[in-house]
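Can anyone check this?
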Amino acid sequence: MSVRFVSFEKSLYDLIRGLRNHKGNEGEYIQNSLRECRTEIKSQDMDKKATALLKLIYLEMFGYDMSWAAFHVLEVMSSQNYLQKRVGYLGAVQSFRPDTEVLMLTTNLLKKVLYFISLVSLLNSYLNLS
C-alpha cells in the first residue's frame, strides 16, 4: 500500500493575501515564503515550478534577490506549455543581468524557439501553396 502525500503549495494570490494579513511582520512572512519557493521551484512538476517562479517574481519587485533561480527560470522558459513559458520569459526579463551565468543557454534556447517558429511558418506557406 503506497501513501501519497498531498502538498498544499500557496498560489500567488495566497502569497499576496498573506502579505496583507502580516502587516508589521512582513519580513518573517517573506522569508518563510522564500524558503517555500526554494523547495517548490526544485520540483519536477512544471506547474509547481512556474507557480513558485511567479511568486519569486512578485517578491523580486519588493527588492528580494532571485538571481539564485536563474537556471530554474530557464527550465520554465523551455516548457512546452505556453502559460508556463510566458512566466519563464517574465522571470528572465525581471531577473537576468549582463553577468547572469545562464545567458548563453538562454540565447541558444531563443535561437531554437525562433528556428521552430520560422520552420512552422515555412511549412504553413508551403501547405497554403499546394
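Reply from J.R.: I decoded it. Residues 1-7 have pLDDT under 50 and may be disordered.
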